[in-house]
Amino acid sequence: MLWKIFQFDELESTNDTAVTYPVGSIVVAARQTKGRGRCGRVWQSPVGNLHVSFVLKAPRNNPFWLSFVAGVCAARALQGHSVRLKWPNDVLLNGKKVCGILLEKVEDKMIVGMGINLVHAPQTDSLYEAAHLGGSVSVDEMINNLKSAFDHFLPLFEKEGFGLIRAEWMKYAGGLGEKITVCLPNGKAHGVFENIDDTGALVLKTSSGEKMTITAGDIFLNRKEND
Ligand code: BTN
Fold it and tell me: How far is the CA of 138 from the centre of ligand 1 (A)?
């Protein structure tokens, strides 16, 4: 893709600004005053960390799959660090969250917003402790890594479909085969994280042996912390 980068000192949220830019744009802000996380959470956005939104064409079939593409791209961009993906697309470093991804679909565009803790680890997500990369990667390096990752995986996704992305995602999957807790809009479910099915849903095997297929929620990889 022929990317065009737009860099700002301050924005409310790169995702909001990105909506006004064409497909192929990359909107970066040194800091955000109204950074958003998933589920209405605030994403604290101090100078030093990366706050970036990629403007992509929304896939016609299943836009949710792009969140796996984004997760896989973030994991690849963090090469050299031993990261895990937490369904659907949080990136964990030593069990702590180092990157959050917020996808928003606006008409035929998909805005893929990523916050990567390069220097600071603000406690933005009350569910997970935060980690940072200790300044080992610069903002520009990380943007370049992300660009290359999207250039690698987007055409593969378009050509081969979700199967290939799913397989790549599974290489980084955190908590597979382990007991996890899933926070659902209407309560919690406990069980063993069995798989991600071919639609991207999480398959949970509960203690009664029942298989639950979950399409939305937050998961905890360490059950003890959250019971
Ligand atoms: C989450 O884990 O809850 C998602 C966090 C997403 C944060 C990024 S920072 C760049 C973009 N702009 C925003 O307002 N949010 C996303």
Answer: 18
Q: Is the CB of 97 under 6 A from ligand 1?
A: no
Ligand 1 centroid – CA 101 distance (Å): 5
Q: Is 26 in the pocket of ligand 1 (CB under 6 A)?
A: no
Q: 3-state DSSP call for residue 71?
A: helix
CA-derived radius of gyration, the chain: 17
Q: What is the pLDDT of residue 39?
A: 78
What's the 165 CA to ligand 1 centre distance in angstroms? 22
Instruction: Compute, in angstroms, the gap from residue 209 CA to the centroid of ligand 1.
Output: 36
pTM for this entry: 0.92
**pLDDT 10s digits, 88-140:** 779 999 999 999 999 999 999 999 999 999 999 998 766 789 999 999 999 99
Q: Nearest CA to 171 among 153, 148, 151?
A: 153
Is there an atom of ligand 1 within 6 Å of 125 CB?
Answer: yes
Element holding 212 (H helix, E strand): strand 211-214
| 43 close to 115: Cβ distance less than 8 angstroms | yes
Other beta carbons within 10 angstroms of residue 227's beta carbon come to: 10
Tell me the CA distances in angstroms from 13 to 30, 132, 140, 196, 213, one per residue in order: 11, 21, 19, 31, 33
- Closest ligand 1 atom to residue 99 Cα is 2
